[in-house]
Design a protein that fits this description.
- The structure holds 2 protein chains of 2 kinds.
- In chain A, helix 2 runs antiparallel to helix 3 (79-106) and helix 5 packs antiparallel against helix 6.
- Chain A contains 6 helices and no strands.
- The radius of gyration of chain A is 19 Å and the shape is elongated.
- By secondary structure, chain A is mainly alpha-helical.
- Helix content of chain A is 86%, strand content 0%.
- Chain B is mainly alpha-helical.
- Chain B has 3 domains: 2-339, no CATH class; 351-407; 412-489, no CATH class.
- Helix content of chain B is 69%, strand content 3%.
- Chain B has helices at residues 2-30, 36-54, 56-65, 71-90, 97-111, 118-153, 157-188, 210-241, 246-262, 266-274, 287-301, 310-339, 355-363, 382-392, 397-407, 416-421, 430-438, 447-455, 469-489; strands at residues 200-202, 206-208, 351-352, 378-379, 412-413, 443-444.
- In chain B, the strands form 3 sheets. Chain B has a two-stranded antiparallel ribbon with strand order 1-2. Chain B has a two-stranded antiparallel sheet with strand order 3-4.
- In chain B, helix 1 crosses helix 2 and helix 1 packs parallel to helix 4.
- Chain B is elongated and about 80 Å long.
- The chains are: A mainly alpha, B mainly alpha.
- The A-B interface holds A 4-5, 8, 11-12, 15, 73-78, 82, 139-144, 212, 214 and B 31-33, 143, 146-147, 150-151, 154-159, 161-162, 166, 245-248, 302.
């Protein structure tokens, strides 16, 4: 039996590694955001480097999984769906990296009174990604649990939207130049977008889950 | 010569291989879980094994419905069945050789004045309906069990894929085996009584019997059908008729294989018989209808959505139309083959009511007063005897059948050289052959005469009332050997 499942187990491990990398990247994003807000710039740059490395690894894993699935004609009925899930999940990590990179390039000055709401929005978006990772894992192993995780992703996405709106209102109520307001709004939206991506993957996942049911 | 006559049967085999293999491997190939080459190889091996090992059961049932006794007749019956199946497929009604061969056989019975065993007909026809419903029930039960197990077992998608792939191979092999066992009767079953293949002795231990050779040829025709045309059919079945996921296909094929096996396995039949349980008749059923039954069963469990209900109507229609169409095709074709091509399509068996047969009837304790109308007469066929005797209202159906058996004129001459030439001698024990040698050169007009003389000898003894399985099996073997002797020693022209 072990010989029979040798290839299968290998790809299962690769998929798990890919999802671990996505989860790591989301947690690193949260830590990087804290570092940035606390002014720990060198630590922030270290986190960005770690996320870049994760993003590269996620790309490599995704390509390897795709190649294996096609070369060995595995899961022919669900292959397209699985590849779409992996590609869309990969976009979430790309988005996380882009967002931090933008911070590193522009180094926006964030007023301390924004810190709390800024972190709340970040945590909501990161939670959405973490729940997405759990949903995708369940898609492979525990189908009935997928909807539960999808529900949580939607919850955190809505939470991120509401907090993001509050954050933007707070930004525009500050007594700072319009150009800075506009720049901070751009970054706030970037953080919200991470949960939007997670939600978009879940929309597809919900359909693929129905398709996978017997 | 037999090869030319066998062509129509081989065509039926080709069509079975081309069409019915799709019912087993169609979804697996179309969903790319299995490559066509893999599917074809598995199908070829296991259909052949099924046909060779367990094909005799359904053939026997078909034989009771009508035992074609001339090669020309067997050719025509198979041809009519093939023509009817072609028409049914053209109008896109799932049908199989089972239904058409039955109609064609009854057509032959009718054409040559033989009686149709209505008990066998009812058994066969009811089996079609039962097989369809049973496969739906089995598929539904397996589906529910599978579904609840998968929800609890939390198997990874990729592992499930690997298991499904192996499942499709194993279940496909089982399905192919059952298909071969169940459906070979449709392909060459009508040729069994007229087969002229000699037994081949391979080494000193193994005998490749004439009937086995016939089944093997039928299996080869099926294999040819698989390799030449089934790929196209598999793609159509997998895509158009019912699009199944690999896992649902696995369940449907498993249900199909189980049903085909139930209706084909002599081993299972004997097992049920020994356990005192009701047996399942060994009848060739339609694999196309059985798989549709399985898909319908699964569809109903899923809530009945996306189910093509018109297919049910089509199948019910096929149960009636296919045999009726084959009946007419067979009757017309037999007329043409006999009168235009001047081929023998049946042996002309007459029934004589002379002193010998009347005394034998009296011995059985029957009142012969009711036979005054036929006494001294020679009747031209079974149906003529039946209609004469039913008119007297003196005898019940079983008694009439017994009178028919006694009056049947079947001239024979005991000639052991025939058994040697045909390679059949090894089928009999040395003791039984010694008994036969004592009768060498003797002539008999009726089968019962030879039977009475032989069964009076201890080596050929028949148990009057068999009490156990051993005695039942002993009687069965003796009857089969007697039937072989009748066929071998037959001298059709010697009626004086």
């Amino acid at each position: 039996m072990a010989l029979l499942l040798k290839t299968t187990k290998f790809i299962e491990t690769q998929i798990d590694q890919f999802l671990d990398v996505v989860s790591d990247a989301a947690l690193l994003f949260q830590l990087a955001m804290e570092d940035y807000l606390m002014g720990r710039n060198s630590q922030f740059e270290e986190r960005l480097a770690q996320i870049r490395e994760r993003e590269q690894k996620a790309d490599d894993l995704r390509v390897a999984i795709e190649r294996y699935l096609y070369e060995r004609t595995l899961i022919p009925e669900n292959r397209g769906d699985v590849l779409a899930i992996l590609e869309n999940t990969d976009e979430v990590i790309d988005n996380i990296k882009d967002s931090l990179l933008q911070f590193s390039i522009e180094m926006p000055v964030i007023n301390p009174e924004l810190n709390d709401l800024w972190m709340q929005t970040t945590r909501a978006s990161v939670s959405a990604v973490e729940q997405l990772v759990s949903a995708v894992r369940s898609f492979f192993q525990d189908l009935p649990a997928v909807n539960n995780y999808i529900h949580k992703v939607y919850f955190f996405e809505r939470e991120a939207d509401q907090l993001g709106e509050k954050l933007r209102r707070l930004i525009f109520s500050l007594d700072i130049e319009l150009s800075r307001k506009s720049q901070l709004r751009f970054f706030a939206i970037h953080i919200e977008k991470i949960s939007d991506y997670a939600q978009a993957v879940c929309d597809r996942l919900a359909i693929y889950t129905i398709k996978r049911q017997l | 010569m037999i090869f030319i006559y066998l062509l129509s049967g081989l065509f039926l085999g080709w069509s079975l291989g081309a069409n019915d293999t799709g019912n087993i491997f169609g979804a697996a190939v179309e969903t790319r879980m299995l490559r066509f080459k893999q599917a074809a190889l598995i199908a070829a091996i296991f259909i052949t094994l099924g046909a060779m090992i367990e094909g005799s059961g359904p053939s026997g049932t078909l034989g009771r419905l009508g035992s074609v006794d001339a090669l020309g007749g067997a050719f025509t019956v198979a041809l009519a069945a093939a023509a009817a199946i072609t028409v049914m497929i053209r109008i896109r009604i799932p049908v199989s050789t089972s239904q058409t061969i039955v109609g064609a056989l009854i057509g032959w019975n009718y054409f040559c004045g033989r009686l149709t065993d209505f008990r066998s007909l009812v058994t066969i026809a009811s089996s079609w309906v039962v097989a369809f419903v049973l496969s739906g029930v089995i598929a539904a039960v397996i589906f529910v069990l599978f579904n609840s197990y998968l929800k609890r077992a939390k198997i990874h998608l990729l592992e499930l894929d690997a298991y499904t792939r192996w499942g499709l191979i194993v279940v496909g092999a089982f399905g192919a085996y059952s298909l071969g066992a169940n459906n070979i009767a449709n392909v060459v079953g009508v040729f069994v009584p007229v087969s002229s293949f000699k037994d081949l002795n391979i080494g000193s231990l193994f005998v490749f019997g004439g009937i086995s050779q016939l089944y093997f040829m039928g299996a080869l025709a099926i294999v040819a059908g698989i390799y030449t045309y089934s790929h196209k059919v598999m793609r159509t079945i997998g895509k158009d008729l019912f699009h199944l996921s690999p896992l649902t296909a696995l369940i449907a094929v498993l249900a199909e294989a189980i049903v085909l096996f139930l209706f084909a396995s002599r081993g299972l039949y004997n097992l049920l018989l020994n356990a005192g349980l009701p047996t399942i008749p060994l009848v060739p059923v339609s694999s196309s209808q059985v798989i549709v039954g399985a898909v319908v069963g699964i569809g109903l469990v899923k809530g009945g959505k996306n189910l093509k209900y018109n297919i049910l109507g089509k199948i019910s229609l096929a149960w009636v139309i296919a045999p009726v169409m084959a009946f007419f095709f067979s009757f017309i074709a037999l007329f043409i083959i006999q009168n235009v091509f001047e081929q023998t399509v049946y042996q002309n068996i007459e029934y004589t009511f002379n002193n010998k047969t009347m005394n034998k009837i009296k011995e059985l304790g029957y009142d012969t007063d009711g036979l005054s109308m036929v006494n001294g007469r020679m009747l031209e066929n079974e149906r003529a005897v039946y209609s004469q005797l039913t008119r007297t209202k003196e005898y019940n159906k079983a008694q009439i059948m017994e009178i028919i058996r006694i009056t049947e004129l079947f001239p024979m001459e005991v000639d052991l050289s025939i058994l040697r030439t045909k390679g059949l001698i090894k089928r009999f024990s040395k003791e039984r052959i010694k008994c036969l040698e004592t009768l060498s050169g003797h002539k008999y007009k009726h089968k019962w005469e030879l039977q009475e003389i032989l069964t009076a000898m201890p080596e050929w003894k028949l148990y009057d009332k068999p009490e156990n399985e051993f005695q039942k099996n002993h009687n069965k073997i003796i009857r089969e050997q007697l039937a072989l002797l009748y066929r071998s020693f037959s001298v059709p022209g010697d009626k004086k």
